[in-house]
Design a protein that fits this description.
8-stranded mixed β-sheet, 422 residues
Length: 422
């Protein structure tokens, strides 16, 4: 397989781009593997990559029911940040951001990571006080964070609605400069390419239809491409976690599956050089500008529950209202498309990464709004868990029994809104 370099790009430009190899194989599944990972999104591919690179395990299959990049991996708003505060989350997401900063070089694939700052707007003196507490935690634990005054914010992001009669008056902002965005499908392709180079079999169009157990272990998976056995199994299947969990005969999980929509507008000239986020008065909104010029944004969950990859019109209206209220100059631009992904929402807004009641099954799920930004660290720690059969201390409390212990890793605003009548 060709290694990317300035020289290889130059040479292929002279030959009509005809010298590139296929980026990963399309092998037939073998009957058995040492590790079988269900889910060919970024989390599953990163896990396979780090199992090979960090632990020397290469007899791995990654099973994807569709195609690489066709699930949540390509259906998000591409935001990367580590401004989390709770123990376990703080260390995890900071490690993920550290991996992001060198990921293109590590994978020899341009994931288009752009550190353009994550700007959380603050709408009251109380919000400023709360942000100061959280961002001081970040600074004291080796990360970066700062507060911008209203004057500094106006200088850096001039097009926001700063009027005294604004629907959501702005008092300042909390900023993480190292945060930013990346290209979601490029991340998936980069990890797929790296895993394939290490000998991992990436099996596309391979849907799991059933789970065969022998007592307290999984023996094999029945798939649309035949029976696949393994010594260890990992679930990293985003919004379909509950489905796989029930196939394995394990009952219910403390998660809800919801649709989360994303949107993109027609291309504009450079307008927004940061990720801008706000949440106040029942609103939730985040926005950035892509390299092609389109504004990419999202907001609240879609409360019409479904596994479909499309959303409903009430959220379109809600998010558009947020966009215009925060940046009135967007009022006449056109939306060109919107889509949704099915996401697992845990009851405290934090993920699960742990061993399960079955001896050889490991769980990676419940990512809420944090799945994309977590991808590198998710693969790193999940690979460590599978290889060593025990959780790293960073993820030790991210298990299924933390609610029994009364231990909530609760990042405000990061989880679902559980309703008994939902």
């Amino acid at each position: 397989m060709t290694r990317f370099s300035a020289w290889s790009v130059f040479c292929n430009g002279l030959t009509g781009q005809k010298g590139w190899d296929r980026q990963w194989r399309d092998p037939e599944p073998k009957s058995g593997y040492e590790v079988v990972i269900v889910g060919g999104g970024i989390h599953g591919l990163a896990t396979a990559c780090y199992l090979a690179r960090n632990h020397g395990i290469t007899n791995i299959a990654v099973l994807e029911k569709g195609w690489i990049g066709g699930g949540n991996a390509g259906r998000n708003t591409t935001i990367v940040r580590s401004n989390y505060f709770r123990p376990g989350n703080r260390e995890f997401y900071e490690h993920s951001l550290n991996l992001w900063e060198n990921l293109s070089h590590e994978l020899n694939y341009n994931v288009m990571f752009s550190q353009r700052s994550h700007v959380s707007l603050l709408h009251s003196p109380a919000a400023i006080d709360r942000a100061a507490r959280g961002y001081n935690i970040m600074r004291l634990t080796g990360s970066d964070g700062e507060l911008w005054s209203l004057d500094a914010l106006k200088k850096n992001v001039p097009h926001l609605n700063y009027g005294e009669d604004a629907r959501f008056p702005i008092f300042g902002a909390a900023v993480q400069r190292r945060a930013g965005t990346a290209r979601h499908d490029a991340v998936a392709w980069g990890y797929a390419r790296a895993a394939d180079q290490a000998g991992v079999d990436i099996i596309q169009n391979c849907e799991v239809l059933g789970v065969t157990r022998d007592g307290g272990e999984i023996r094999s998976l029945e798939t649309s491409r035949g029976t696949i056995s393994g010594r260890k199994f990992g679930f990293a299947v985003a919004g379909n976690t509950s489905r796989l969990w029930q196939m394995a005969g394990l009952g219910a999980l403390p998660i809800e599956t919801h649709k989360l929509q994303a949107f993109v507008t027609e291309p504009l000239k450079p307008l927004l050089d940061q990720v801008v986020v706000f949440g106040v008065g029942g609103t939730h909104f985040y926005m950035s500008q892509s390299d092609k010029g389109g504004l990419v944004f999202g907001g609240d969950l879609d409360w019409y529950k479904s596994y479909a990859q499309r959303g409903s019109l009430p959220i379109v209206q809600d998010v558009a209202e947020c966009a215009v209220s925060m940046m009135p100059c967007l009022g006449r631009i056109r939306l060109v498309r919107h889509w949704s992904g099915a996401v697992d929402m845990s009851m405290d807004g934090s993920f699960f990464m742990c061993k399960t009641p079955l001896d050889n099954l490991y769980l990676n799920g419940g990512w809420n709004y944090g799945g994309f930004k977590a991808s590198p660290a998710s693969g790193w720690y999940f690979a460590d868990l599978i290889a060593n059969n025990r959780p790293h201390e960073t993820i030790a409390n991210h298990d299924l029994k933390r609610f029994e212990r009364g231990y909530h890793i609760d990042e405000r605003g990061a989880g679902p809104d559980p309703k008994l009548h939902g």
